[in-house]
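quick one if you have a minute, typing this from the bus. theres a chain ive been looking at and ive put its sequence and its fold in token form underneath. please have a look and point out which stretches look like helix strand or loop to you. anything you notice is useful, everything is just below.

***
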Amino acid sequence: MASRQSRRQFLGGSILGGAAALPGALPGQARPEAAAESETPRAHMVQMINGFRMAQMLHVAAKLRIADELAQGPRTVAELASATQAHTDSLYRLLRTLAGMGVFAEEPDLRFRLTPSAELLRSGTPDSIRALAEVAGEEWMWRPWGALLDTVRTGETAFDRLYGKNTFEWFKEHPAAARIFDEFQAQNTAMTADEVAAAYDFSAARTIVDVGGGEGVLIATLLRRNPSLHGILFELEHVIASARTKLDRAIAARCALAAGDFFQAVPEGGNLYVLKSILHDWDDNRCGLILRNCRRAMTGDSKVLVVEEIICGRNLPCLAKEADIQMMVRNGGRNRTDREYRDLLAKSGFASARVIPSRVGPSIIEAVPRG
């Protein structure tokens, strides 16, 4: 149950690693007059309106594993079509469009090669965001966004209305979708785990309980950076089964794996409980239940760390605001302001001590049991 990070940068074009080539420009260049035009409010609005096109094109490239097919060097579009069971002409039209945006590069004789941006779509690499691109175009991801109007009018969660159950119940019945979603979650956590580890001094802790910690990306990072620590990864049974195959031996020796439901109870024995990108999945009542279960498991010297993107001020752009709409349509959760998180903690038996921003990514709210 790790994070659902906003796709603002990914879908907005920063994945391209710089300005995309514009019509009439030399490779890697943009025409000055076109660049100036692109800065107008109208051009900015058109780019945002058409963002779904880029998301879907990147989804298809990721789904077909085009970057994996090019990992050993350039290939013709016919070779790529054969390897991916795609229609040759249609695949060419897709790839030449992406190449014009800096994702892949077209060479003579209908050959394509990787670019630094396309490298990010490879599977199994440290910086891979292939699962992010793939999930962005999955039917169960974009369909609730298509019902955003209904959610705004009624307040009902679009996913629940469309599928007749909440996201997590649906994933239990669709294991293939759950697997790609778990991979997506792990990649999101990998993007910020080092920043979280650097922002807070974990060295004073003895045992860290990662509540809803997915496949263990964050707790592995924390244990790797703090050799004296021990950890408990707490997740649903099917996620723990996957984590067993992915934690390296050195980390696994210091990390117990515990399966369960944080709405029922969380493991005892920790003096630091980490909730990374958990509370934003749920309404205030469910969040209170999770926090109270943590409170019951804690001892007098325990602390809880709530790691979340925090809603920024009026008229300011931030990932937390856009991701909040994702929560609204997909699972009925919400991103919150600093004050809202403090109030939530206070109602659940905690005294909020401080908010610690990371250099990039989510903030850390440290709280201790009250009384």
In short: The first helix runs from residue 8 to 12. The domain at 8-125 is CATH 1.10.10.10 (Arc Repressor Mutant, subunit A). The radius of gyration is 22 Å.
